[in-house]
Every structure is written in C-alpha cells, then in structure tokens.
C-alpha cells in the first residue's frame, strides 16, 4: 500500500507535531503518459483520509491558467533527492533554478532535440555560474515560480550539469484541464 507523508522536513525523524501520513486509495496516471521523455509525466493521488491544514501543511491553489515562465525567470524547486554527496537527503532541500527557454534548451549546446522539449515542459537549471538542479528522488516535486505552482519535476540528464538542466512537466492549460476533470471524478 502506498503512503503519502505530508508536513515532514526530515524523512528519518518522526516529527509528530507536523507529520501527517495518509494511505493512498487510488493513483491516477496521466492517460497519455508513456515515458517521461515523451511528456505528460503527471500523476494524481487520492488519499483515503482528508488532510489537516496546519503550519506545515497548506493548500496550494491551482490557477485557471498557469503562465509559461519566460527565459530567465527565477524559480524554486524542492525535494529529498540525491545531493552532491551522492546520497538521498534526509531533510527537505530547496534551490533556486533559472528557466531556460525551450528554443535554447533544444539547441545543440543543450539537449539538441534529444529529447524534444515540448510546450508541455519547462527547462530550468543553473544560471551558468553555480550548479542548481533537481536529481534522482526529486521527481514529482514542485517547480514554483513567484509563489505559483508552474510544474512538477520530471527528468534530467545527470544532476547539476549546466548544459543538461532539469525538465519539468508544465501545468499547461491542457494539463490543468486533465487535473481538474480527474479531481471531479
């Protein structure tokens, strides 16, 4: 049985006052998901019990339309994934990343169309000076730009490579429609 842990800062310590554990009743994979490189790398979870809003657990409002972040936009990503020490972090980590336009991300200097970065994806990573990226174990984590959920961590080629930045599933109008329709059912 899958479980969701909410309000946790550490995945090791039992933070009783802030941690909420809920069993997952059902998984809803995006119907057009085939492979994260092709896109539609989204999944919704229906929990068996409601979640309590607390200081550590808050609702994130989904917008009617999420604006495509332009090249150079500073965003925040977070997760418990692999760190530069090459081990899973026991505490939640976050880092600021910079959006790299799709045209540039598809150029021969970056991904060279292998894979094709589509309009349902956001490319974001280092600003060219210091490595900033998500890594294995961060998938499904948020891409927040200006306090708005813009995307979800999907994949990358390695970790912290300036020319192979992280790729995020963009919450495009089409993806938001699927999310809202699925949540109603």
From TrEMBL:
It is found in: Secreted, Extracellular space. Its EC number is 3.4.21.4. Pfam families: Trypsin. It comes from the Eukaryota. Its main location: secreted. Keywords: Disulfide bond, Hydrolase, Protease, Serine protease. GO terms for molecular function: serine-type endopeptidase activity. InterPro entries: Peptidase_S1_PA (IPR009003), Peptidase_S1_PA_chymotrypsin (IPR043504), Peptidase_S1A (IPR001314), Serine_Proteases_S1 (IPR050127), Trypsin_dom (IPR001254), TRYPSIN_SER (IPR033116). SMART domains: Tryp_SPc (SM00020). Transmembrane segments: none annotated. It catalyses: Preferential cleavage: Arg-|-Xaa, Lys-|-Xaa. Belongs to the peptidase S1 family. CLIP subfamily. PANTHER family: PEPTIDASE S1 DOMAIN-CONTAINING PROTEIN, TRYPSIN-RELATED. This is trypsin. It comes from Neolamprologus brichardi (Fairy cichlid).
């Amino acid at each position: 049985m899958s479980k969701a842990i909410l309000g946790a800062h550490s995945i090791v310590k039992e933070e009783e006052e802030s941690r909420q554990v809920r069993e997952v009743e059902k998984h809803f994979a995006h119907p057009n998901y085939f492979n994260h490189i092709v896109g539609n790398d989204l999944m919704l979870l229906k929990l068996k019990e409601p979640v309590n809003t607390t200081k550590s657990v808050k609702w994130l409002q989904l917008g009617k339309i999420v604006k495509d972040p332009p090249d150079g936009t500073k965003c925040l990503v977070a997760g418990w994934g692999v760190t530069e020490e090459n081990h899973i972090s026991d505490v939640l980590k976050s880092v600021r990343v910079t959006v790299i336009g799709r045209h540039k991300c598809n150029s021969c200097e970056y991904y060279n169309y292998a894979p094709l970065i589509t309009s349902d994806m956001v490319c974001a990573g280092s600003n060219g000076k210091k490595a900033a990226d998500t890594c294995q174990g961060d998938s499904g984590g948020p891409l927040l730009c200006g306090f708005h959920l813009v995307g979800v961590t999907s994949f990358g080629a390695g970790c912290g490579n300036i020319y192979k930045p992280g790729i995020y599933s963009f919450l495009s109008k089409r993806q938001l429609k699927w999310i809202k329709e699925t949540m109603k059912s």
